[in-house]
Hints:
- Strands 7-6-5-4-1-10-9-8 form an eight-stranded parallel β-sheet. Strands 11-12-13-18-15 form a five-stranded antiparallel β-sheet. Strands 14-17-16 form a three-stranded antiparallel β-sheet, with no helix packed on it.
- The protein has two domains: 29-351, Glycosidases (TIM Barrel, Alpha-Beta Barrel), CATH 3.20.20; 358-441, Golgi alpha-mannosidase II (Immunoglobulin-like, Sandwich), CATH 2.60.40.
- By secondary structure, it is an alpha/beta fold.
- The longest helix is centred in the middle third of the chain and has 23 residues, at 188-210.
- Helix 6 runs parallel beside helix 7 (147-158), helix 8 runs parallel beside helix 9 (228-241) and helix 10 packs across helix 11 (332-348).
- It is built from eleven helices and 18 strands.
- Helix content is 29%, strand content 18%.
- Bound molecules: alpha-D-glucopyranose.
Amino acid sequence: MKKLTVILCLLAVSVCLMGQAQTGITAENRADWFKEAKFGIFVHWGLYSILGGSYNGHTLPDTTMANGKSWYAEWIQQRLEVPADVYRRLEEQFNPVNFDADAWIAEVKNAGARYFVITAKHHDGFALWDSKVSDFDIGNTLYKGELLGDLAKACKKYGIKYGFYYSHWQDWEHPQGAVPHWQPTRPDADFEKYWREKSLPQVRELIERYDPDLFWFDTWNEETHINEVRRDELIAMIRELSPKCLINGRISFYNPGEDIDFIEMFDNAYPDKILEKPWQTPATMVHSWGWHANDFNWKPTQRMLGYLINNTAKGGNYLLNIGPKADGTFPSAAVHRLREMGGWLFANGEAIYGAKPVKIDSIPDGVILTQKQIASGERVVYVGINKQMDEVVLPLGLNKIHKCTVLETGMPVDFVQERDIVRLILPAKLFTDCNIQVIKIE
Ligand code: GLC
């Protein structure tokens, strides 16, 4: 008996190692692509997109309230107290006739993003795929296409990694799923039923059907049912089904453990120091994540680019959200911004993709630094500049500089190198219409 157990264990270990050898994926290299990618696009899309922030004559405010309550449009069911049966009947209206998976991902690609994350299921519990686990899903709507499958296919075509947001904790449809803190709490023993009946099986289903590159789970700074046992059970299941699949830290905001692949910041939150573990900021273009027809807080492209560059300089990523309309199209203002970002990245992406932070004590105001080691072993430093200045003084101990140019145009930049100081004399013609320019020091 003992012998048999040993043989079985050895067999299991070798199957496991074979799997690893086949894919070459290990815990150490799994997130390599993510660390290089820097920029991703997030999509919040579901039944709430039909309401677009308004219900029954009321419109959600487009800001966070003084008490910290957020009024995100994807929360409309809770915030404007839409009765469960009314919300459920939105299924009958879900029919994105203008949805074109290829066009979406072409836009993502042109924006210069390298990965794509969509809400496979948000807190309302509605699945954007035809799920065998629950019938609150796209299979019950007028839309008959393979939405997630088509998106996955398009991502493969354009070389974009893809993943799913899955609300593993909050679920307002399942009678035992978690609900917001102002609702009567559901006992943990009940939550267990939801966990086994819906949460775990749907994550499994998503992996088996669509083979995602990452999972984006969501909890925040309040008590959840996601204790260490459940967290680790979910992680173990994913690791077993798909060794390549990344897992974000919001699987358990306060206690993500050691086995997650990257830290997920709070919404639109930007750390002010370099972090060693991979991380990312989920960010909005307006206030809401889901489509809100009366949310006009569109951020200018320059500001969003600033966040992207800053995050890169601190070792992190930027996951920028779009809330598509119910008909399946991206709002024009979002497309406009994506194309502007793509234009900038087309010319300056070298300073972003695969770039690393530069660890120096003081960086002058208006300056952002990234760096790369190139094939020859030489170090290249990229100096992002977002305001007109005559010169920039950097406390950078570099080997001999042999070239210094504006990355976008190739215009030479004069410099003086004195021991541990580099002084860049900025050309008067540095800023044309774009006010973030990058100087490349080789
Ligand atoms: C918050 C919100 C949610 C949104 C998410 C994105 O957790 O509850 O609606 O999906 O942030 O970061």
